[in-house]
């Protein structure tokens, strides 16, 4: 009988394109994945890998076996879901992906009650940008992703994914207290022409939002510091190195040298929980979604 773990390793290599990438997705070392594939070759008496240049590729036989493995893994997952559904209890591993400010500002509110109320549930958390979180859910690496988007930078989902809105998170323009705009009650994009921006790196939702917002005002933003972490951005603002646009979730108290000014029209990012539709009947998914909604409501009314 073919070992399920070895089929899973082959499926991951086919899905991610290399042993290294498959190892990262599975949480193994590349050596461990290679050993699983070597054992699978012996079990099936079939050559599964061949060298090409500096890398390896799957043989035609391996591609066919990987396609079958995908179906087998789906059946196993369905069987596990049915068993958990029958028990009616949240059990087993539940992996949540969350972007950094949600990991800091929302999950610490949601997790204690979720864990205490479901002792058979093994909750794990991994920090990911929204684009990566959605992809990880779709690949089955995580069960729920807390993500966000902006009205002018919507996050599109494939048909096999579901989502529920948790709430909206307003963003403000942050400037040093010595800045020319620091005493303004509100600002508009036109007021920000010529400013030096501190922002997330290109390819992130927040960077895309800033570029689209300023371009709509006829301005190309000058992003001089590409910094992923908001707290690092605030540290730079504290030293007068530029201006930023930072949402309120997980922002915390601002240094005395930094002030927040509402932007008009007021921008807000929308927060969602995303999961694979097929797993919706799993009690662990249902109670986690409930905990996230309750946590957002609690922190919003605190």
Q: What characterizes the major β-sheet? A: 9 strands, mixed
- How widely separated are the two ends? 56 Å
Q: Number of DSSP strands?
A: 11
Secondary structure tally, helices: 10
Instruction: Tell me, briefly, the overall form.
Output: globular
- Approximately how much beta-strand content do the residues carry? 15-25%
Helical content band:
40-55%
Protein name: LysR family transcriptional regulator
Domain HTH lysR-type: 2-59
Keywords: DNA-binding, Transcription, Transcription regulation
Family: Belongs to the LysR transcriptional regulatory family.
Walk me through the structure.
The protein is of the alpha/beta class and 302 residues long. The protein has helices spanning 4-16, 19-26, 30-44, 60-87, 100-105, 107-117, 130-139, 205-216, 230-238, 283-301, and strands spanning 49-52, 55-58, 92-98, 121-127, 144-150, 161-176, 196-199, 222-226, 243-247, 258-262, 268-276. The strands form two sheets. Strands 3, 4, 5, 6, 7, 8, 9, 10 and 11 form a nine-stranded mixed β-sheet that branches. A two-stranded antiparallel ribbon has the order 1-2. Helix 1 crosses helix 2, helix 1 packs across helix 3 (30-44) and helix 1 packs across helix 4 (60-87). Keywords: DNA-binding, Transcription, Transcription regulation. Residues 2-59 form the HTH lysR-type domain. It comes from Kribbella lupini.
């Amino acid at each position: 009988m073919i070992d399920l773990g070895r089929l899973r390793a082959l499926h991951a290599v086919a899905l991610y394109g290399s042993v290294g990438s498959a190892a990262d997705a599975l949480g193994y070392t590349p050596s461990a994945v290679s050993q699983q594939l070597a054992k699978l070759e012996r079990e099936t008496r079939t050559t599964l890998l061949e060298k090409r240049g500096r890398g390896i590729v799957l043989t035609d036989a391996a591609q066919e076996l990987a396609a079958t493995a995908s179906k087998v893994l789906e059946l196993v997952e369905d069987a596990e879901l049915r068993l958990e559904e029958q028990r009616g209890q949240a059990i087993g591993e539940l992996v949540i992906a969350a972007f950094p400010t949600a990991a800091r500002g929302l999950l610490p509110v949601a997790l204690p009650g979720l864990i205490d109320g479901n002792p058979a549930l093994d909750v794990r958390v991994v920090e990911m940008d929204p684009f990566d979180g959605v992809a990880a859910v779709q690949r089955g690496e995580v069960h729920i992703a807390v993500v966000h988007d902006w009205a002018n930078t919507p996050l599109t989902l494939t048909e096999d994914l579901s989502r529920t809105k948790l709430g909206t998170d307003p963003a403000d323009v942050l400037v040093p207290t010595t800045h020319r705009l620091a005493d303004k009650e509100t600002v508009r994009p036109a007021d920000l022409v010529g400013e030096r921006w501190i922002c997330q790196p290109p390819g992130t939702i927040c960077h895309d939002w800033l570029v689209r917002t300023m371009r709509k005002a006829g301005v190309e933003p000058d992003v001089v510091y590409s910094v992923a972490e908001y707290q690092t951005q605030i540290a730079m603002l504290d030293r007068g190195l530029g201006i930023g646009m930072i949402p309120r979730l997980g922002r915390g108290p601002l240094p005395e040298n930094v002030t927040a000014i509402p932007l008009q029209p007021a921008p807000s990012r929308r927060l969602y929980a995303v999961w694979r539709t097929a797993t919706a009947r799993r009690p662990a998914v249902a109670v986690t979604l409930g905990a996230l909604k309750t946590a957002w409501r609690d922190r919003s009314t605190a």
